From TrEMBL:
Alphabetized InterPro entries for the sequence: Calcineurin-like_PHP (IPR004843), Metallo-depent_PP-like (IPR029052), STPP_CPPED1 (IPR051918)
Annotated ranges, domain Calcineurin-like phosphoesterase: 7-205
Highest taxon above the source species: Bacteria
SUPFAM superfamilies attached to this UniProt entry: Metallo-dependent phosphatases
Protein source organism: Paenibacillus plantarum
Record-given protein name: Calcineurin-like phosphoesterase domain-containing protein
Amino acid sequence: MVKKPSLKFVVLTDTHIKANLEGTEAQNFDRALKDILATSPDCHGIMHVGDITDNGERAEFEIVEQIWKANMEGLPPIHFTYGNHDVRWKDLDRQMSLFKDHTGIHHAYYDLWLEGYHFIFLGTEIGLKDCAYLSETQLKWLDQKLSEHELAEKPAFIFVHEPLLNTVAGSQNEFGWNGIRQDAELKTILAKHPQSIVFTGHTHWELGAKETMYNKKYATLFNAASVAYLWTDDDVLKEGSQGFFVEVYEDRVIVKGRDFSSKSWVTDAEYTVQLPVTIPVVDLTVDPDCTLRNPAMNMNKSHFQPNEQIEVTYVGSLREDAFGIYRRGAKPSETEPISPMVHVQTKTFGQPDGKLIFSDLDLPVGSYDMIYLGETLNTELTRLPFDVVVEAK
């Protein structure tokens, strides 16, 4: 007699629904839900890993809800987290209100238990363009939650939209990675709880690509592709719609890739995670993939003369990021990143920590901000005030 799994669930991500019920994205979501009902009607839940909508607009959330209500009969509950497209450059309270109204989920991060297994959903707390920002409070909460009823042979399942740096497919710097700003902090927590199995989206990398599953360090991580459209290892856009079907047994977890367009299994995307999980232990203090951490800036002092050079040191910047001097209170944006009173320097080397020196300045007397421009509209946490003064002789 073949033993049945004690738990079954489906992982979807990146539906990117637009305000058009006839659009490709809406049709792909509808097709995926119908395929789940036909393929695994006895599953215990559907987990959506974010980028539910394309622009976070009310009309898009309404289409999501409409599609779900048209298909929900016979399906298990759907549990959402959200992605950067759902909140980017927007007031997070407003977006969370839309998220709650149309998904029934009231929190940026939350957990639940299904059939004795822990499911944990994380979410950004700032509406950044492409990245997630996890507060210290959320990270401490995650560590605490992973410790609840913790057993080495029983995995906890974590869902967060953006992947960790240099882990699953599409998260490598060479592809212009944008991920979780507290990358090192999250890796540190996962390394304490290696039985965790993490599902991420964001990259759209097709199932079966290199590093669809990653378990070299920290925990077991999966890239869940996309329901809307796909990306390849050659960094090329590809039509398609994919997700995961997961079966949990006492001694293993089987993760199977599904192609919703062809209603078929992705033959080179079936993975088995043996329980208890064995993950190599690494020294996180010297781990070359554990360099990006909670962003911060420091300046050498807070008062300068008009022609004096200014130094800024920083940790946690991304790739070739810019740092700028703006008049106090300025709010740069992606469309208008430079105002008349600004000096900008760009970090062009690879490591996320460093120092920049602004020289040959002739700033008028006044009040200024040093701003990290990596997230443009959301600079409150990476903005340092300083003054330019003329000292009395």
